[in-house]
Design brief:
single chain, 112 residues, alpha+beta, 2 domains, three-stranded antiparallel beta sheet, 3 helices, 50% helix, 20% strand
Length: 112
């Protein structure tokens, strides 16, 4: 999940930002206070907002993966592997059985 610093504009994965503490409560929506690796500013990371963005991103990636035809072209194979890897990582958080099945199916169709 991507996070951006409001001070310097640095963008990176949330893991790139050092964890400082939890903020909020489960009823209101938890968030993390993180530190920008570039400028040191404190940045809020909202799990709810990030998951909402990720849900939309998963749909877009699935559509793109569904549209890829089997090919011997290295650039097509590379893009398919990037999509499959990204969707697998996302599904580790979401644990959607249908998405897991789709990833396996497309892997078989494209690479076996």
């Amino acid at each position: 999940m991507e996070l951006a610093c409001h001070e310097c504009g640095f963008k990176g994965e949330v893991q790139d930002f050092a964890f400082l503490c939890k903020n909020g409560c489960p009823a209101c929506g938890e968030s993390d206070m993180r530190q920008c690796p570039r400028c040191g500013a404190h940045v809020m990371f909202s799990r709810a907002a990030a998951l909402e963005k990720e849900e939309m991103q998963m749909r877009d990636l699935c559509r793109e993966l569904a549209g890829i035809e089997r090919s011997d072209k290295p650039e097509v194979q590379k893009r398919a592997m990037e999509l499959i890897g990204g969707l697998r990582r996302m599904n580790e958080r979401w644990n959607i059985p249908q998405l897991g099945d789709f990833i396996k199916q497309r892997s078989r169709e494209l690479f076996f």
